[in-house]
From TrEMBL:
It comes from Labeo rohita. It comes from the Eukaryota. This is Craniofacial development 2.
């Protein structure tokens, strides 16, 4: 017997019948083999559209930053102050996003790192010209091919130069990281979570329930037994922490202490946008902080967080007690 039907073990139960078809002549001394399968396919779920990520780095330019502050000032002049924390926070976030959108174009998705913005613009023009002017489409297609070749050569020349510079300066961390990125090899991430009995979760509901059990045990534990431990003797700071209402200068220092390059929260406002607002944004932000202080209430979107599991080296599956930390979306 020379002819077989190979099937993955996962779909073994889907195989219903296999037979040799003696009638058809395929120019061979073998017979055709027909297999009958029955698959159960799940309905595809349409994912919610993601909001485009703005290129906040554009606000580092002095002229763009000035235009951003002017647009922000005009927007705030039309917005009245709100008495609610959530409403005021939403107004400020929407004003920042609407003012930054014309100056910070969305970050385009690239299949290759060496494709330039100019080349992507030509691709968009070629797409529009396909059904309108075919000659224009062919010309743009030729221009795109030449530009891609130029961008690709320039990119690899720069990569080679960076590798030579890193090797000459003995920066082996940069050298090996660049080589690893170029090789395309990445470690697979296993997000399996174990239950308390050692078995793995099988559904989203079980995953959420396991997280709930973990945090209930983390924060609602029994008080320690025995006599209380005497706290260490510490000297009082020369300047005591004030319990008065936050000042504009304190808000200004907190804004300038924000780190760039961090992921924004649910409001999609990055630290670069808050810093670029300057003196135009600070008074309005100060009013929001004072409102939070008086009402003793934090905006709902600031309390949202993302749970990111950290996998321990050498383990194929992680336990929930070893793998959680929060990346808060609060901006203060």
């Amino acid at each position: 017997m020379l002819d077989y039907v190979l099937i993955n073990t996962r779909f073994r139960s889907s195989l219903q019948d296999v037979r040799a078809m003696r009638g058809p002549d395929c120019g061979s001394d073998h017979y055709l083999i027909r297999a009958r399968l029955r698959l159960k396919l799940h309905c595809a779920k349409r994912a919610a559209p993601k909001s485009p990520r703005l290129d906040w780095r554009q606000l580092a330019n002095a002229d763009r930053r000035q235009e951003f502050q002017l647009a922000l000032s005009n927007r705030f002049a039309q917005l009245a102050d709100s008495d609610g924390v959530d409403e005021e926070e939403q107004k400020i976030a929407e004003a920042i996003i609407d003012s930054a959108r014309p100056l910070c174009p969305p970050i385009r998705r690239r299949t290759q790192l060496w494709i330039s913005e100019e080349c992507l613009d030509l691709v968009a023009k070629r797409k529009k010209a396909k059904l309108v002017d075919f000659e224009r489409y062919r010309q743009l297609n030729r221009d795109i091919r030449r530009m891609m070749k130029r961008d690709r050569e320039a990119y690899w020349d720069q990569v080679a130069h960076d590798l030579e510079e890193a090797a000459s300066r003995h920066e082996y961390r940069t050298l090996y990281r660049t080589l690893r990125d170029l090789s395309g090899k990445s470690k697979s991430i296993n997000d399996n979570i174990k239950k308390a009995d050692g078995t793995f979760v099988r559904s989203t509901a079980e995953r959420l329930q396991r997280w709930k059990e973990f945090f209930d045990g983390l924060y609602n534990h029994d008080p320690p037994q025995g006599p209380p431990v005497a706290p260490p003797v510490t000297d009082l700071p020369p300047v005591l922490m004030s319990d008065a209402e936050p000042t504009l200068e304190e808000v200004k220092l907190a804004v300038y202490a924000l780190k760039n390059g961090k992921s924004p929260g649910l409001d999609q406002v990055a630290a670069e946008g808050i810093k670029a607002g300057g003196d135009t944004l600070l008074p309005r932000l100060h009013n929001l902080i004072k409102l939070i202080w008086r009402l003793d209430k934090v905006p709902t979107r600031w309390k949202k967080a993302i749970i990111i599991p950290i996998h321990k080296k050498g383990e194929s599956a992680i336990t929930i007690a070893e793998s959680a930390f929060f990346q808060s979306s609060a901006k203060s």
